[in-house]
């Protein structure tokens, strides 16, 4: 398809180009930090989850690129990080480090000629405080999803989605440590395949992958396994109720051991057919955040898959910063979804 035809067929072509550019640049910053991460680069948030200089740097770069590339668009962003902890007296050194990381990443790219001050960095972070909701357009950003995986040297994703009138219409996932072709070696870079992939989708236009460093985009599709005995499933490495997911897998007759991976790289791997099912069941009372699912879920649905809550409802991204949903999230193909939902209900009933 020529570029002109693609623009005509995709009403979000400009937003997609900007989002891909933003995520690619942010992923470059993350790669540099992951290679040499120090304990002093990591902070603990009020909820005791970790945040690193790269989470902040990625969020700053993405909001900057989106504003530069889409100057005529109004800007609203629902993002994970904010400047609160960086405004404290003891955070000055880390703020300086983030500022220089952002400026070095910009300087190493030919696109922009600018330099940010510490105040610019703080202001850019606070551009992500939108509540989102059912009307208008809102970017949804997780600057590093899977921070724990990032710190460990494993999988993580830079995840950017666009909400339009309450629906996710675009998603981009930068997965610097994920090979773009089907392989089971998810946690390493030992396969011969291209490692470092950019996944993207816009509503009605399918899902594609290209190398993070740039290559011809390839269409991706979810696997067509229709017998659960032949299926494998993904779950979170850090946040999964393993007793429940293993009970679901047993009911389905799944033979393969679970593939445990950090971040929305799971959605990307599923969308390119590396496995058949993603089960996400966290502890009771945990409220899922929209930025942990927006980009990944549209990439799976545009690759031909389905993403539902435990009751079989679509995910509702229109309720603000949290997902309004029944317990659990299930992503799989349309053949397996009814069987998985049945097994999920049985496993939940037995648990009570
Ligand atoms: N107790 C919990 N249960 C479920 N998810 C949690 C959690 N604590 C944190 N998370 C979320 O899980 C995300 C990582 O996903 P995964 O578990 O698939 O690797 C985290 O994203 P961040 O790393 O962006 O903070 C965070 O939002
Ligand atoms: Mg976090
Ligand atoms: Mg996250
Ligand atoms: Mg995050």
Percentage of β-strand residues: 15-25%
- Helical amount: 25-40%
Separate helix tally: 10
Strand ordering within the main sheet: 3-4-5-6-7-8-9
Annotate the secondary structure layout.
Blueprint: H1 3-9, H2 13-35, E1 42-44, E2 50-52, H3 53-69, E3 77-79, H4 92-107, H5 118-126, E4 137-145, H6 147-152, E5 157-164, E6 167-179, E7 195-202, E8 207-211, E9 218-220, E10 233-236, H7 242-252, E11 259-261, H8 265-271, E12 277-280, H9 294-302, E13 306-309, E14 329-332, H10 337-351
Parallel strand pairs: 3-4, 10-11, 10-12
Antiparallel strand pairs: 1-2, 4-5, 5-6, 6-7, 7-8, 8-9, 12-14, 13-14
Bound molecules: adenosine-3'-5'-diphosphate and magnesium ion (MG) (3 copies).
What this model shows, in words?
By secondary structure, this protein is an alpha+beta fold. The chain is 34% helix and 21% strand. It has ten helices and 14 strands. The protein has helices at 3-9, 13-35, 53-69, 92-107, 118-126, 147-152, 242-252, 265-271, 294-302, 337-351; strands spanning 42-44, 50-52, 77-79, 137-145, 157-164, 167-179, 195-202, 207-211, 218-220, 233-236, 259-261, 277-280, 306-309, 329-332. It is globular. 50% of the residues are buried. Mean pLDDT is 93; it is low at 182-191. The structure holds adenosine-3'-5'-diphosphate (A3P) and magnesium ion (MG) (3 copies). The site of one magnesium ion has 3 residues, from strand 4. Keywords: Hydrolase, Magnesium, Metal-binding. Its EC number is 3.1.3.7. Mg(2+) binds at residues 80, 142, 144-145, 292. Belongs to the inositol monophosphatase superfamily.
């Amino acid at each position: 398809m020529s570029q002109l035809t693609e623009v005509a067929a995709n009403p979000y072509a400009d937003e997609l180009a900007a989002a891909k550019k933003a995520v690619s640049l942010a992923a470059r910053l993350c790669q540099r930090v992951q290679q040499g991460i120090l304990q002093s680069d990591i902070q603990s948030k009020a909820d005791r989850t970790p945040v690193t200089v790269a989470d902040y740097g990625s969020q700053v770069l993405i909001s900057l690129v989106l504003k530069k590339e889409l100057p005529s668009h109004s800007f609203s962003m629902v993002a994970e990080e904010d400047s609160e902890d960086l405004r404290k007296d003891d955070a000055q050194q880390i703020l300086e480090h983030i500022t220089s990381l952002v400026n070095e990443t910009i300087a190493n790219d030919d696109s922009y000629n600018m330099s940010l001050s510490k105040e610019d960095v703080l202001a850019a972070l606070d551009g992500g405080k939108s509540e989102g909701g059912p009307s208008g357009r809102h970017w949804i950003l997780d600057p590093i999803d899977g921070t724990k995986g990032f710190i460990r040297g494993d999988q993580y994703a830079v995840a950017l989605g666009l909400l339009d009138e309450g629906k996710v219409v675009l998603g981009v996932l930068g997965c610097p440590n994920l090979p773009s072709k089907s392989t089971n070696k998810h946690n390493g870079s030992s396969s011969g395949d291209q490692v470092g992939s950019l996944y993207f989708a816009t509503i009605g236009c399918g899902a594609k992958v290209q190398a993070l460093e740039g290559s011809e985009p390839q269409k991706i599709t979810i696997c067509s396994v229709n017998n659960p005995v032949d299926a494998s499933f993904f779950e979170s490495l850090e946040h999964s109720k393993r007793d429940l997911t293993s009970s679901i897998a047993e009911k389905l007759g799944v033979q393969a051991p679970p593939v445990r991976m950090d971040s929305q790289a799971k959605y990307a791997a599923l969308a390119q057919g590396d496995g058949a099912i993603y089960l996400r069941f966290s502890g009771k009372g945990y409220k899922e955040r929209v930025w942990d699912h927006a980009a990944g879920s549209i990439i799976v649905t545009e690759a031909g898959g389905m993403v539902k809550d435990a009751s079989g409802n679509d995910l509702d991204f229109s309720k603000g910063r949290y997902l309004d949903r029944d317990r659990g999230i299930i992503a799989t193909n349309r053949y397996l979804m009814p069987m998985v939902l049945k097994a999920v209900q049985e496993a939940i009933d037995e648990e009570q």
